[in-house]
Amino acid sequence: MTKQQANWSPYDNNGGSCVAIAGADYCVVAADTRMSTGYSILTRDYSKICQLADKCVMASSGFQADVKALQKVLASRHLIYQHQHNKQMSCPAMGQLLSNTLYYKRFFPYYSFNVLGGLDNEGKGCVFTYDAVGSYERVGYSSQGSGSTLIMPFLDNQLKSPSPLLLPAQDAVTPLSESEAVDLVKTVFASATERDIYTGDKVEIVIINADGIHRDFMDVRKD
Amino acid sequence: MHAGRFLEYSLHTVQDLVHHKLLHLIEKQANSGDRIDLQVRCLAPDLPKVPFAKAFEEATEIISFRFFVPPFVWQPMKFFGVGSEQRLKEAIRVVHDSAEKMVTDQRIELSNAGSLDDRFDLLSRLIQIKNPDNQGEKGLCGIKMSKTAIEVPPKGGFSFDLCRRNEMLFKKGVQPPSYRKTGTTIVGLIFQDGVILGADTRATEGPIVCDKNCEKIHYMAPNIYCCGAGTAADTEAVTDMVSSQLQLHRYHTGRESRVVTALTLLKSHLFNYQGHVQAALVLGGVDVTGPHLHTIYPHGSTDTLPFATMGSGSLAAMAVFESKYREGLTKDEGINLVCEAICSGIFNDLGSGSNVDVCVITKGQKEYLRNHKLPNPRTYVNPKGYSFSKKIEVLSTKVTPLKERVEVIEGGEAMEE
Prior knowledge:
The complex is a heterodimer. Chain A contains 4 helices and 12 strands. Chain A is of the alpha+beta class.
């Protein structure tokens, strides 16, 4: 008798792409705002970016119900931290917390592909990239989601010095200025929208620097 | 490892056969001027074909299984003669026995009949040429082993030989290769003076757009056009084929093609292939009997309708048609409605996108409006542009001049057209 397979899956993929780039004194985190299922669009206006601490922002693509649950868990753990330590969590600390939270559900994972961006304790930009079960690494730039296969090679090519392709990475962060990095992110999303059906509608771009957090929107193709 | 050695062995066997036997045979035939039939019919009708084929397939399956488990699993199984390896041994024995029996039968026939000149198959020829020795036996058995030695009547259409293997691989988790589908919105409607067809222009390969501006409205006849959704290769091939058949029919009858002719040709072709040719079509045209619009499904059923939509965006487009369609539309109203329906598919269905193609067919004339609407311009283009430096390190350079293989003979005869 052949093994019985489940004809119901607890997961769904809502699509989307996210990108994060770290600079000398800033960090840019961006994600598209389209939420889809199968061949249909659920909404054109869904924010995939969540602010976890005052200098730390997370962008997640994948199954948005799991993402929402993950964000709630992190928010409550952050609140506890604030009560116990009388200060905000730093970005590297939040990075470790996210990794542990994801691994905690190793055998029924959060279907969530995350990039964490922010400023570390010295004020330099930092980006952490994750897989679904919590393996993470500090990098100079990263992308996740359905468009990541289209975006990553372009970033590898343009942001040469922090690229791990030139082993070892010459710089921890990119030498580009903030406006150049934002330009790069806009180009990258316009291109990914052309070829990936799950990416489109609008792009939400969040810039974290010493002055605080600034949010911007860009329109892209809606088809 | 074993894969490499197997390949080597097969290569040597084939080389042997070709150089020492096949080439001699063909040379001999060329000199004698006889015709030789290389279609192998080496099995006598009385031989049990079925156990041979079954054993062969089973052996193939079990050998493929070896590739999925590490050697320390199947080698002990082989040593102890247990499990699948035991069945493999048995299967190989059956195959070898059948092959040897076939060869000995042919030899007996040779000794009885004196010559096998009236049997034109490859095996008989080879038996006649070479001396009977052990090596030859193995070689002949080698020819037998190839699947083409099994008598198969020449058939057209699809060959389902690999279906069992594919099923087994799929169960092991090997993904079948994906083919390009058009994940589409195509529509048609009948208006006052004729038919209007519309289509989007996006072709997808899974979640990736592989063509941002492809053509989905295909020409069938000067007065008939057909939109295609489903597998891109299937829609292209089927519409091209029926278009040629219609042309021949026009020459034969001397009359303008009718839409029902195209319809019947398409539906019978698709039905013959039982849905394996995945083409969903919207066929429209105007002939002597008036304007016609039909939908054709991959299994061969058809509908005749005043307005129709197909493809992954068909629901989005049909929603527009059902709200706004009425009989007796003018040409401009019709074109606008078709554009609206396609745009609805483009923006609400992820499988459709880019631009709108429209085709208007009326009595005696047609207008093919390629890219009639372009509602999706590229949004952000960085004015400074990007540079891609050629940072490829040259590690070593080796230049090998190719020997000249062509000899140019001066003063040869001019080639005939």
